[in-house]
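Supplementary Note 3. Input sequence used for the single-chain structure prediction.
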Amino acid sequence: MADNDADALELVCTDLTFEGQTIVGAAMSGEEALTMVRKTSPDVVILDYRMPPGPTGLEVLRTLRAEDRHVPVIVYSNYRDARMVQAVRSLGATFLDKGRIRDLRKAVADAGASR
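The predicted structure, written as C-alpha cells, is reproduced below.
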C-alpha cells in the first residue's frame, strides 16, 4: 500500500489486516512503493494516485508494467479524472474511489485469489 497521507495509509492497512490480509509494507511515496514491490513481489499493490513530490500512482503502475511486473494493481484515490482512470484500466489495473473500503476489500481478495 502506498499513500502519502499517513492516516489514510494506516486506516487501509489496519482494515485489510483485520480482514485477514497480510500487509508486507506501507510506503509514503511512489519511490518507496517501487522499492518495496521489487524486494517483496506482493500479490497485490494498492497505490494512491497523488503522492507528491514523487511519481504518481499511474507513473508507478507504468514503471511496474515496463519492468514486466504483472502484479495486480489497485489505484485507490480521491482524485478522479476520466483520462487517468482510462489509463489505469488500459494498463490492466483497477481504479477505485478512496473511501469505498468494502470495494477495496473485495478487489484485494479477488486479486489475491487470482494469483
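The first strand starts at residue 45 and ends at 47. The chain is about 50% helix and 10% strand.
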